Amino acid sequence: MRLYHRQRRRASHGRRARPGACLSRRPAPANPDRHPRAREPVAWRRQHHRRDRERRDACRRLAGRHGRGGGQLPARGLHRRHRRQRLQPRLRPLRAAGRGGKPGPAASGPARPGRSRNHDGRLCRGLLQLSAPRRTRRRRFRAGHPRNPGRGGPARPGRRAGGHADGYRAGHGPRAGRRVNGRGLIVTGGSRGIGAATARRAARDGWQVVVNYHGNAAAAEAVVQAIADSGGDAIAVQGDVAREADVLALFDRAEAAFGPVGGLVNNAGILDRAAPLSEISSARWQRVLQVNATGSFLAAREAVRRMTAAATGGVIVNLSSMAAPLGAANEFVDYAASKGAVESMTIGLAREVGRAGIRVNAVRPGLIDTDIHGDAGIPDRARALAASVPLGRAGSAAEVAEAIVWLLSDAASYVTGAILPVSGGR
Questions:
Q1: In this structure, which of 36, 133, 313, 397 has its CB flanked by the most CB atoms within 10 Å?
Q2: What does the angle CA 311 – CA 314 – CA 319 come to, to the nearest 5 degrees?
Q3: pLDDT given at position 117
Q4: Does the annotation mark 335 as catalytic?
Q5: Which of 63-72, 200-209, 337-346 shows the lowest mean pLDDT across its residues?
Q6: Which of 4, 168, 335, 414 is catalytic?
């Protein structure tokens, strides 16, 4: 009852209130029956509206007393009659940690701003100062984890080659899109043609190249020597990609020489004599698909297994051909079918392993002047068909190698599942 009369006197500011007058700051509602607090006692309404004012005043007084910026409200629900029970026990440690104050005898060690020690020596946060963001231990992923991409794609061991966040800007810096430190790159069929050009070009970007060959050891050693003369690292490994045991041995040699394999270029392929489909034997069909399609499958599967196990990510580039969409009628339908299988595998595999940080793409060369036309019995085929190309000429192996190395680099960090034509518009 005394609290009720004291509140009435304070709310009226010393003036005697009219009987029945609402002492709340808010005006009386037009329809009291619909007001949510119309049926509550007048003292409760005054207490409800006065609570925020008292909380604000208390905070301002305490803030000025302890040298802190005012305006912050204390814990919700602070009431005048609870000030002694709720505020005073916290003021003692605040005074000990306030600006210009001295810590109490129970405090041990310096107290950081916004914190103080109570009588038990335990740290407590200040009531008037919002706590700073808590210092949390940043989760650090081990080197090589897919969640630890760093800044260089396959540039360093322990990197994810699957790409960068939105802040990555390709083409910036003196070595943008290039690898700084080497990782192992396997180039199948790397002793001549597009494979040899790719091996030499990738070595200039820091890749440590494993040149795979089937039978021409002298040509493979010449490529390795050319890479060594230019300051790169390379070895030659013999193997038939159509045999699973040879593929496993190839990857073992690569890891023994250069560590985890970060890239694979599935370039090995064969082309038989030009002939219509009716004249192609089943043995020839099986051999072409075994080398071109199954060989690419075996190498890609082993690369994915090892890249996933090492959690390093990587890049796979498969070599297709414009024969796949054009069909190569009356010439190389078996070759076209094998390259069509490679393209389908590229798209499907890219969707399977993208979350593991592995990018899979394919390059589709057009009319390229290499030795493969001689294997088909048409050594002048590239020059004879140059007029059918919109650019008016046949391409070179070095031009295809540039596209392959670009797909291996960070400049293509957001490219996966793509079939890149290098055909001069044909």
A1: 313
A2: 150
A3: 46
A4: yes
A5: 63-72
A6: 335
